[in-house]
What does this fold into?
Amino acid sequence: MSVLRLVIPSPLRQTFDYLPPAGMSEAEVGGLRQGVRLRVPFGRREVTGYLLAVRPHSDVAEGALKPALELLDPEPLIDSRLLQLCQWAADYYHHPPGEVFNALFPKRLRDGKAHQLLGNAGWQLTTRGKGLPPGAMARSPRQAQALAMLQAQHSVATTQLRDAGISPAVLRGLRAKDLAQECLLQQPAQPASSKPGLSLNPEQASIINALHNAGEGFSCHLLEGVTGSGKTEIYLQLIDRCLQHGKQALVLIPEIGLTPQTLQRFQQRFSASIVVFHSGLGEAQRYRAWEAARSGSAHIVIGTRSAIFTPLHQPGLIIVDEEHDGSYKQQDGFRYSARDVAVKRAQLEACPVLLGSATPSLESINNALAGRYQHHHLTRRAGGAALPSIHALDVRRQKLRAGLSAALVDAIHSKLQAGQQTLLFLNRRGYAPTLQCHDCGWIAECRACDARLTVHRRQRRLRCHHCGASRGLPRQCPHCHSEQLLSAGLGTEQTEEFLRERFGQWPIFRVDSDSMQGKNAMHSLMTEINKCEPCILLGTQMLTKGHHFPGVNLVAVIDTDAMLFSADFRGEERMAQLLTQVAGRAGRAGLPGTVLLQTHYPDHPAMLAMLESNYGEQARDQLLRRQATGMPPAGHLIVVRSDCGNADLGESFLRRLHDTVQADLPRGAALIGPLPSPMQRRAGKFRSQLILTAPDRATAQAAASRLVAAADTLPARGGLKWSIDIDPQDVF
It folds into this structure.
């Protein structure tokens, strides 16, 4: 008897065999296609499984196999290429395949609910009804009329039947006789069109021609363009060509905050169906967008990280904007990189993929230099705008008020008086990162993390920015009961307070995850800022990711030194990216912009590089250093992490794992650790890590397979959980 091999959403890295549902014939079982959903028993639960294959037998004894309960889809909802992508991702990231397959479906389908087509209500013949000859039901004229209309067309809209004088009672009569049934009529996708694009400069035109000449098959392109160089116009013109060929475009963006701005620009350009995917959508909205993309009625799909698994009817182009951004890497659960999955998906779909950034990741630059990606450059800003001038502002021995030097305060005042906008960057939200007792030295610390609590003075709360714990702001020290509690350090709330005292006659906008609450908050802010009236923008990284602020003429980084010293080997790369991105908000239209970097270390090598070299030059210098040390992208990293309420149990587990695989590692692979994570305790769990280095991808993958196989055999006591992270972005 045939056996169904399924993947089940569970933490287990394996497949599961089931018998077919009761009453299903061998012929019907043999006709099942990969990817269909089935409802199956799993332990004490009933879950949705996904069919991988129909096999003639199982390694499990037939008496031990359970039958599936129900076939949920007669045909798979996902095409074979997307299923192949999921199998590749499960193998590459060594993640349980059922959880990877879950990424393909909206919640209602993961929960086993019926797939519903979206469209207008209509009627169609049943199998029995299709067998009736023309002119049947002559004794019931209205039913005969309805049958004739249904026989003439595959399906008929309910409104069309009603206009022909056929009542609901007549249709219900046909349904009672099993001759007709209700259905949903999908709206045919209307042809997409677009408004004329902007005129291109020679660099832009050359890139468009190069991508057109690459053809419609798979090719991977890296677009490295300085901030404000017109990368988005290139995206739009490539999408226009894609739509003209009757295909769909998938555009990935790093942050939900960019969605309204991106959507508005696309809607202004295209007369087309555009859907968005991000974490702010409700389940019904997400399902409608998913079905529109799957059916092909949506021409353009815009989304954050998880949108890379959206089914497309006719994929023709994939774009990853701000491809360097760390938001594309999932940091928990299924730890995939949406950028890397996008490249693999384009290969499977046989379509081009374009990675764009002013500050490409070293991995992408390395791939371009190795010839794996075609490399395109935009070296000057569109429309003739000049790149901003960058200056270090030495604040040694200077009096600072809320982090601002007198020279910076004067520069802000000068710009506001001239009717221009200023952007101040401080990557630390809250009022202050530390609350300390002046008398006994007590410091407010998180009870669940090795971290200090941040003061949020407006809310009168202490908050942990790692686990989310919160408690009221105390009025006295819990140790000595002194009321001399001091806020130490700097946050956006504190700087905002000073700015309102000093520049109260001008609008001041604080932009961080505390102030930008609600799905329309960023859109409302952008509308206000784009009036180009004088104001001050103060914010965190939310301000640096692809936003276009035409009125900003001065950009200042309040605490550049916070980025100069990092324990992570990627620290210098991220600093260069962040400073280049935030500097790029200045002078995008009109007068040349100015960037001021406040620092106590104006002679630091990374600071001098920022002042004297462009990002491309800095990145290539960093690549040489990575090659000398064998760190990514010259080498490859894998991290195995343990989470446990007992620190000794977690470290002991990783030590046993180290000892188990050490002798069996492929040549060139090496293990470091186990070591406590830089923040060892987080959310009440102690974290340790085992780091594996390898000279190439094949060696890294072979070593990862050995690590996973060994870890699965080791006992995990005390609630210990372990995970493996392939190509980690953060080694902590």
Observations:
- The longest helix spans residues 697-713.
- The radius of gyration is 30 Å.
- The longest strand covers residues 670-682.
- The chain is about 30% helix and 25% strand.
